[in-house]
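dude i think i finally got it to work??
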Amino acid sequence: MAKDNTKETPLMQQYNAIKAKYPGALLLFRVGDFYETFGEDAIKTSQILGIVLTRRGNVAAANSELAGFPHHSLETYLSKLVRAGQRVAICDQLEDPKGTKTIVKRGVTELVTPGIAYNDNILNQKSNNYLASLYFDKQLIGVSFVDISTGEFHVAQGNAEYIDKLLQGFKPTEVVFQKSRRQEFTELFGDRFYTFTLDDWAFTSDYANDVLNKHFEVNSLKGFGIEKLQAGIVAAGVALHYLGETEHRNLKHISAISRLEEDTFMWLDRFTIRNLELVGSANENATTLFHVLDQTSTPMGARLLHKWIVMPLKELKPIQERLGMVDYFTKKEALIEEFLTHVKQIGDLERLISKVGLQRCGPRELCQLKKSLYHIESVKNLAATSDNPFLMSVALQLDPCLSIRERLEAELHQEPPAVLSKGNVIAKGVNEELDHLRGISTGGKDFLIEIQKREALDTDIPSLKVSFNNVHGYYLEVTNTHKDKVPSTWIRKQTLVNAERYITPELKEYEEQILGAEDKIQQIEARLYEELLLQVMAYIKPIQRNAFITAQLDVLLCFAQLALHNHYAKPVLNTSRILDIKGGRHPVIEKRLPVGEEYITNDVFLDNDTQQIIIITGPNMSGKSAILRQTALIVLMAQIGCFVPAKAATIGIVDKIFTRVGASDNLSSGESTFMVEMNETASILNNISDNSLILLDEIGRGTSTYDGISIAWAIADFLHTHPTARPKTLFATHYHELNELASTMSRIRNFNVSIKEIGNKVIFLRKLVPGGSEHSFGIHVAKMAGMPPKLIARANEILKKLEIDRTEGQSIKDSIKKVQNQAYQLHMFAVDDPILVQIRDMLNNLDVNVLTPVEALLKLDEIQRLIKN
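look at this
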């Protein structure tokens, strides 16, 4: 084997040393004006970004593959790499190449992962970007959620089921946990998360407490109310440790940590969040509840709405406060518009101030922060004129931060560039030296124009021009036509095909002044901007409070607009065990109806004493599932403080909503539809309470008919006879046999979704009416779906025979066998022709053993006449 004598260059030695420290990350290595990637990183980068993959001169060298992009395109390309699931280490030049004769010092300045990002191109404006940290203790699991882009930090602990619920609600983009617990994590929470594991040494209580106390500059965590959540504290400590490991140490904006109280929020398990399509859907182009409700004016309002939807309240007082504010705004439409005029201009104050904390805030963003504070003051003044308690509270809590706003107004240029290096960031009059140097820079350039005019006149060279490049600096350029007119005092610097370039002592003197001034201007602006940024950092907490209050106001204004535009009604909430909805509608489906078509409303009444369980039968596609879902959505909307799509609704606070609707195979885990259905149903039955709302749709359809009926019957019986809980239940089924339950169980009632039969047609009325249904009209639905007419005719024929046999006492199994035999005997007949069907039936009824030849001929003649006619 040939020996590779290739010697590593100093640059590649430096690259390999840095790469070794970040083995799992894709390293973007700054070389001049480009970020370069090498070897396997280059192959990945070229595939993800669609950029050219090249090879360096010596193809035998390690890391010979090469792919790169201009440094100013970092934000664009970085977002694509992170969205593709890459951990990206950004390695920058840590010194000016002009100031060193050896290789430039480089180091990783930031490690960006899916869960740690603040770049606008990576983040979704309307949802948080949480990093979750899990700690598997002996009995409990601790969890923390941190969003570096907003400064939010939450902690909780509980059993695996509760943690799974939180993971489903918060939807972290990355989850960190102990390296030794990978199998356990996958078994409990699946493989749907992007994960990263850390060594177990970081998961200790002493280390976590130390990290958190140092970060928040406190002696204990009692002030945050989390001191007893030891498993949660370990998870939170690991989250901060991981942020430090990824080179994120400027975290002043993570200024508090809050406890997630299990008793404060309604229980929505991951099946319910998925089945009700609250904030996401497995179906492409589906409209979610969040899409319908999101009429917010700011990104931070949208993110708060997202949280409210997946974490509805179950305490009466805060719900009524929200509903009261929505009611107040619906009666003052002009006030809504006045508030929105200013709220819309505040923008994403939450993420703006977080960038200040991260020391990643650009001049233009700082200018937007200043403008937002002016609108905060306008909102404060508007709220102060109200006699409403909530708005009076808003007026008291909002802080326009006048001193820092005035400083930003005075020191920041009115229209600054997006990045500091572009210059012209600091306003005139802030720094005397800066103003002087700017005068030299701009005045010097004006003087160069004067030199050009004077020399052109003196030498009689009209085409003479003064230009600049990075190699020769400023120079005088003369075309070959006039080079004989050049004075002898000029020094020739460069010869071109059609021209000559010269310098003069006077030109070099002004060049030094101008370039020296520009370098100093950049240094002074950078220093003053950094000082200004540090001053703003002192206002992180009041500005974060402004952001939260504005977000709340934004969501409540959104709810008021929805109530007015969508004709939602104010629900009545209380501590009773009653759910009474009059004229309920599905908030999503009604928005997708064709123009001019009205939604068919329905009433639903459930309580714990007389009508605990409703069995709903009716044809397929008649709207049973829609009634189930709209009932849950109306309850959920009421408990987030929103008006509801109904004529009226009285709702006793619901503590848990469970749903088992829709079929969903989990084939990747080897689970059938029926297994998934049973898992979800088991989760419901093991967690019910007296205030629960349960929605069951077509339970048992994934197995045989008799098994399915037995399971569905047993579930209804279990819910009715439970010793400690009477959960309110809507049970949609195609098993009409379940109607019998109402005759023996006092709190079960039968309802059906009505239809109208006109001839052979069925019209779905989509109205829920008392009483059970006897037919499913499945064949009619198949016809509507576009099944071939031949198939539909055959299905009707089989159904007719099965129904006849059933009345004669034959079993389904015997009836099916009989139909199969007939089909085999007469497969040559086209079953969609009624005449051939009649002939087939005549032949079937003949007993050839007693038939005389004359009778046989007469029958044959009869058949022939049927065919001719």
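The CA atoms of residues 323 and 681 lie 33 Å apart.
im so relieved honestly
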